[in-house]
Amino acid sequence: MFLFMKKMMNKLSLVALLAIGILSAFAVNFYEKSPDNPATEHSQLSKRQLDLLNAPPLATGSKIDKIVVRKADREMDVFYQGNFLKTYPISLGKNPIGHKEFEGDMKTPEGVYAINDRNANSGYHKNLGISYPNEADIAYAKAHGKLAGGAIKIHGIKNGLGDIIGANHLLKDWTHGCIAVTDPEIDELFVAVVEDAMIEILP
């Protein structure tokens, strides 16, 4: 019996090591640097990013009715009744330059939209839905014989990887067009952003 239990424990240990290895390999592959990606020119987070990550959380009960995304800066500002509250560092779609036009182009939209949905059971921790595509987006894509795409969100890290990846997601633009933040940040935003809050996404 002792030998049987010992063999079983060895097998379980091997399975655990394999699982850790797979997750580690995923994390390494996730952050593989790309010379064409403006967000991956540095091997570590910038002082600006670290300062933003270490900023105090929003005060309890805070509300957000306007979000401004500055794509070129990889930053997102939040406001309530015209008053600035906080800036979050962000990651964008894998093809970050320019407005999203078609399904699968991996671009993050540009323009004025609304937060029109929220999901506490997202595959990426939690998410806030953005009202892309609007009528103009749909018409433009249709005129080119294509679909405009959709399901653009502000979301956290893929479930199960939040503690492994964390703020290092900022080293690379990695989404399919969404705006990514850390899990604690989307927790904060999820509670504070009011229904139909405006979101302006700048180049």
Automatic annotation (TrEMBL):
The active site is at H155, C178. PROSITE patterns: LD_TPASE. Keywords: Cell shape, Cell wall biogenesis/degradation, Peptidoglycan synthesis, Signal, Transferase. Residues 65-202 form the L,D-TPase catalytic domain. It holds the Pfam family YkuD. One of its GO terms (biological process) is cell wall organization. CDD domains: YkuD_like. Pathway: Cell wall biogenesis; peptidoglycan biosynthesis. The keyword Nuclease does not apply. GO terms for molecular function: carboxypeptidase activity; transferase activity. Residues 1-27 form the signal peptide. Belongs to the YkuD family. This is Uncharacterized protein conserved in bacteria. It comes from Moraxella lacunata.
